[in-house]
Amino acid sequence: MKTNQEYLKIFSAIEEVLPQIAARTDEIEGLRRLPADIAQTLKNTGIFAMNFPASWGGAELNSMEQTKLIERIAEVDAALAWCVMIGSDSGIYSGYLEEAVAKKLFKDVNVITAGWIHPQGKAERVDGGYLVSGRWRFGSGISNSDLVSAGCYIYEDGEKITDADGEPIWRVMIAQPNEYQVDDGWHTTGLQGSGSLDYSADQLFIPEEHSFSFSEPYRKGPLHDAPEAILRNMSGVPLGISRAAINFAKSLAEKKFDRTLNVPWIDSPRVQTIIARCEADLLAARGAVYCSLEQQWNALESSSQLSVELRFATAVARFNAFKTCRNIVQQIYDLVGGQSIYKNESPLDKWLRDANTICQHAVAQESILTASGELLLKGESRNPFI
């Protein structure tokens, strides 16, 4: 597959700014959000344009290129990568809106969108749109966002509306950040720097044209022809954390001493085995992610239909990447031993907290395996993360 020149340009720009951002990861964690200047620096690289079409001036990167960018950023800081992963969904959302409306809302291809798209809110139908009320969590990057999404079930005359199959109708509302009440409830163990604040609304009017359903794309093509488009680059976060942890362990090999076996780390069979096992686990997880993404992308380029096998493969590869990450970081944390708990000596405490936190996302829950099994055996699943 031909490499997109826009990908190379963005990757180069990211590599240029990552060293200065790496020096500020403690600041990011302390603030519990990205500083405004770092968010702007990331904007300047063009990374938030990766899901916008070339016809808009966007980068229009494929799933594999996007994941590699997120993976590289996560090697430096998981919260930073998480904010980029969420914020760059703007281009995907724009494809579910009528184009003239989308261009008014998404004023340029570097727009950052935050928000929780799954239906935690209530949208009552009124003339011209909806009155939206509710409270949403996990507004990652909301402090630096240009737009905020909010998933809602649709109501009419106080009754929840259902589709022909009896399922509740779910739409995503788009509004300005200042139209919501933002509350700081983000006091967590991991991903502290993601600024994933709570936000709420009470009878907020959203015009009909500023809402969308993932089942009704306006723009055709691989970025929009499957409803799980926003999930495709997520695996970059656990893959990047895993790579950082293994590289850290390897960097200690020349310095540390294995007191158990009374040999330097570099000569210790115990250390050699654990590092090799972690590398093998990451190799397998990473291979599954990129292989399934490439097969899916190729299928979407030739047809808008995805087979059961491809839907299954991307979902379980993503699930496995998250679980593998936590396992790798835990193994290395234990290998390094007492040094792991000192913040000034090791980043492993932060990586372990981040790994545990990302594994609480819906894509890393056992319900994904249940839904994947349902998909394989019955040919369908209503789980939105499959």
TrEMBL record:
Keyword Oxidoreductase tagged: yes
Alphabetical list of Pfam families matching this protein: Acyl-CoA_dh_2, Acyl-CoA_dh_N
Acyl-CoA dehydrogenase C-terminal domain sequence ranges: 235-365
InterPro entries reported in the protein's UniProt record: Acyl-CoA_DH_C, Acyl-CoA_Oxase/DH_mid-dom_sf, AcylCo_DH-like_C, AcylCoA_DH/ox_N, AcylCoA_DH/ox_N_sf, AcylCoA_DH/oxidase_NM_dom_sf
SUPFAM superfamilies per the UniProt record, alphabetical: Acyl-CoA dehydrogenase C-terminal domain-like, Acyl-CoA dehydrogenase NM domain-like
Oxidoreductase listed as a keyword: yes
Record domain Acyl-CoA dehydrogenase/oxidase N-terminal: where: 20-91
PANTHER family: ACYL-COA DEHYDROGENASE, ISOVALERYL-COA DEHYDROGENASE, MITOCHONDRIAL-RELATED
Keywords (A to Z) from UniProt: Oxidoreductase
Domain of life of the native organism: Bacteria
GO MF annotation: an example: flavin adenine dinucleotide binding
Protein name as annotated: Acyl-CoA dehydrogenase
Transmembrane feature ranges: none
